[in-house]
């Protein structure tokens, strides 16, 4: 005959209840923060790539204008007459401005006060040298959603 043994007594598990659920929630929270950080990194990367594209395009356009100046008659008066911005703008500047506006740089217009500027300064001849012109080309653009325009400025000395 078997001895009467009392039934096993189960201890309450109140100290352990919900720990696994809490660990899972913390893990999901950490994972979610990581995913959000990666998404933000991707957004910043796309914005920086667009900004680099605009800077590169502005540099190419400025070099295009300087190349046109080098290929033209380089006397100071002729350079100013053909390439100076402002009122009245030179014929070569107006032709190049059409290229700039068709280039895809955002918000290059008179309405947003972001038209490129070209100015000249005469540099007197040094000892045994010849006089030259110092051309400053500034290109402005304003990216989508930005509050302030960006600019690219280059200076070339033309003899």
Which keywords apply here?
159 residues, alpha+beta
Structure commentary:
The chain has one domain. Strands 1-2-3 form a 3-stranded antiparallel beta sheet, with helices on one face. It is rod-shaped. The mean pLDDT is 87. It has 159 residues and is an alpha+beta fold. Helix content is 45%, strand content 16%.
List the helices and strands and how they pair.
Elements: H1 19-71, H2 76-83, H3 91-101, E1 117-123, E2 132-141, E3 150-158
Antiparallel strand pairs: 1-2, 2-3
Helix pairs in contact: 1-3
| Series of secondary-structure elements, N-terminal to C-terminal | HHHEEE
How many helix segments? Answer: 3
Could you name the ranges where pLDDT drops below 50 across 5 or more consecutive residues? none
Question: Could you tell me how far the N terminus lies from the C terminus, measured between alpha carbons in angstroms?
Answer: 122 Å
Short note summarizing the structure:
The chain has 159 residues and is an alpha+beta fold.
